TrEMBL record:
Known cofactor(s): Fe(2+)
Designated name of the protein: Ectoine hydroxylase
Keyword Cell division: no
Swiss-Prot/TrEMBL catalytic activity: L-ectoine + 2-oxoglutarate + O2 = 5-hydroxyectoine + succinate + CO2
Protein family per UniProt: Belongs to the PhyH family. EctD subfamily.
Length: 296
């Protein structure tokens, strides 16, 4: 990237030296209470905390078939399919593009409890930037270190503005002790630049263990001291909506209770990907869709 383009980047990261955190320059909520199912109280909470928990996003009678569908997808994919990310021990950690592999998952994207919420929060038509199934089997499921998704999507995918939102839908019970997602509420209002250049094909390792594009321990300590930590727990069918810049992570699952979630990332059609801001080349399409076709 040229120096002139770097100077225009409002969210510089992957630097060779530490710089101060940067106040967010984009809204968290782009729509209004008249634009969708969320009332003003929900929108205000999303703006302040950076996340919302929505119960009953997927109906109880849909859950068994979706859980069965996860098994089918995993069984049908070739062992070397790059969309399958495995734990160091060999168990499946994530499967990307499930909405293109399963009509049942594609139907979840279009649910009245999902798509209208995404459009309202982003104030526009939306498309799927990334989708995956996250599996955390009992005893062997490892966690995800603290990070902001936008930091990666900006640096490695060329997402220009913080105008994307994630929806993590529980397919199994998310308990406090089986690796449920933790968030730092309010951290979405600050962009935390990270130190360290992006390696070639960083996604080959970062999807298993992320070490580049994560805040240092001092930064994380200050963020937690200021905001605290919340956790997404709840029954199957509930959903966590969270802002692309919210710091989040999860611990490993050492219980016998598996945890699985459908993870959908909606991006505004007005926030199309550009060239990566801080990476040698684009990531594959299954990690960062560049065909910004509105979900209808």
């Amino acid at each position: 990237m040229s120096a002139s383009l770097a100077l225009e980047d409002p969210y510089p990261t992957r630097l060779d030296h530490a710089i101060a955190p940067i106040p967010r320059q984009d809204p968290t909520v782009w729509g209004s209470a008249t634009d969708g199912p969320l009332d003003q109280d929900h929108l205000d909470r999303m703006s302040a905390q950076g996340y919302l928990i929505r119960p009953d996003t997927v109906a109880d009678d849909q859950l068994p078939s979706l859980r069965h569908e996860l098994d089918r997808i995993a069984a049908d994919l070739e062992p070397g399919d790059p969309r399958v990310i495995r734990e160091p021990g060999g168990s499946i950690r994530s499967i990307f593009e499930p909405h293109l592999l399963s009509e049942l998952v594609a139907e979840v994207v279009r649910l009245d409890t999902v798509l209208p919420v995404a459009r309202q929060l982003l104030g526009s038509d939306v498309y799927i930037h990334q989708a995956r199934i996250n599996l955390m089997p009992g005893f062997t499921g490892t966690g995800f270190y603290w990070h902001s998704d936008f930091e990666t999507w900006h640096a490695e995918d060329g997402m220009p503005a913080i105008r994307a939102v994630s929806c993590s839908i529980a397919l199994t019970h998310n308990y406090p002790y089986n690796g449920s997602l933790m968030v730092i509420p309010g951290s979405h209002q600050t962009f935390y630049p990270c130190v360290g250049a992006t390696p070639e094909d960083n996604h080959d390792t970062s999807l298993v263990v992320q070490s580049i594009g994560v805040p240092d321990e001092t930064t994380l300590t200050k963020a937690v001291d200021q905001h605290g930590i919340d956790q997404f727990t709840g029954p199957p069918g509930s959903a966590l909506w969270f802002d692309a810049n919210l710091l989040h992570g999860s611990g490993s699952n050492i219980t016998p209770l598996p945890r699985s979630n459908i993870f959908l990332v909606f991006n505004s059609v007005e926030n199309k990907l550009e060239e990566p801001y801080a990476a040698p080349r684009r990531r594959p399409e299954y990690l960062a869709a560049r065909c910004a076709t509105s979900v209808t």
